[in-house]
Amino acid sequence: MRRSPAPVLLSLTLLTLFLSATPAASWRPWPYLKTNHSDLVLGNNKKFEGSSEFVHLKYHMGPVLTADITVHTIWYGTWQRSQKKIIREFINSISAVNSKRPSVAGWWKTVQLYTDQTGANISRTVRLGAEKNDRFYSHGKTLTRLSIQSVIKSAVTAKTRPLPTNPQSGLYLLLTSDDVYVQDFCRAVCGFHYFTFPSIVGYTLPYAWVGNSAKLCPGVCAYPFAVPDYMVGLKPLKSPNGDVGVEGMISVIAHEIAELASNPLVNAWYAGQDPTFPVEIADLCEGIYGTGGGGSYTGQLMDDHDGSTYNMNGIRRKFLVQWVWSHILSYCTGPNALDQ
């Protein structure tokens, strides 16, 4: 069900829901956990490791993004041009038709398999939209989940070059630089998605937040290009684009865009009985990047000529992106799967 600007009562109801719920979150791999270990239960969200025995993914009749998807980006804090370029090229690669296999576009084909109640598939097209720079930290360097929505409000209501408001096919991607702390960052999440409330933003817009963990917790949110301090002797993999923090963000961005497309209002595709704690198509494959992945093992990956590790090709770059759940195959899959 799509919500448009609403009366005060509905706005207060939505605000109450937000405060009592946890936005759908992107967990990162915890290398010491074993497949289907009891410790895979983190809070109220279960880290499935790709076993169909435990997965009951269902469609709950809500909308998915069937119209061409436009990603509007908010760069919050201090960003280097090179960092922006890596992220832009990844988003542009989602719909690229001429990328070398295995490709990011091939990864998106699994996401496209999900449909709405009319049988319409998620759109093949994902494109970059407008961008907004918030280099002066307009809401400070410590953000809560509610203040994230205020940052989005500032971007869509700015006096100069406001971001367009497109609830039907627009996604709003808030990216925070490595000197910004967001509520539960590193401790519980590396990114999450939800939807904005009319009482705060003026519109119901699907959005995601992803943080750069380079200074705060690279061993958690940029794994396997960084490893936790307690894992003595384990060497991190070499990143294909030379920026560990941004490299970690790429897979989380992919995770959130896939879930926003298939569950934008948290009432479409997810597993579990509680919509306030949904387990979504990327949650089911957290930490799996290749065939055989699960637990502490990322799966079979590829090495580039310079020794860097990746599993997908973009337009001009290589990336490491986690797999997503296929409800057709009933397991996690990606374009680099050895059984394809």
Please tell me the overall pLDDT: 87
Calculate the terminal CA-CA distance, rounded to whole Å: 36 Å
Order of helices and strands: HEEEEEHHEEHEEEEHHEEEEEEE
Please list the strands of the largest sheet in the order they lie side by side: 1-10-11-8-5-6
Beta-strand fraction estimate: 15-25%
Summing up helix and strand content along with how strands pair, one would put the structural category as alpha/beta
- Low-pLDDT runs of 5+ residues are 1-20, 27-52
How many strands in all?
A: 18
Q: Considering DSSP H and I runs of 4 or more, what fraction of the residues is helical?
A: 10-25%
Overall tally of domains: 1
Number of helices: 6
If you compute it from the alpha carbons, what radius of gyration comes out, rounded to the nearest whole angstrom? 19 Å
User: Can you summarize the main beta sheet?
Assistant: 6 strands, mixed
- Form type: globular
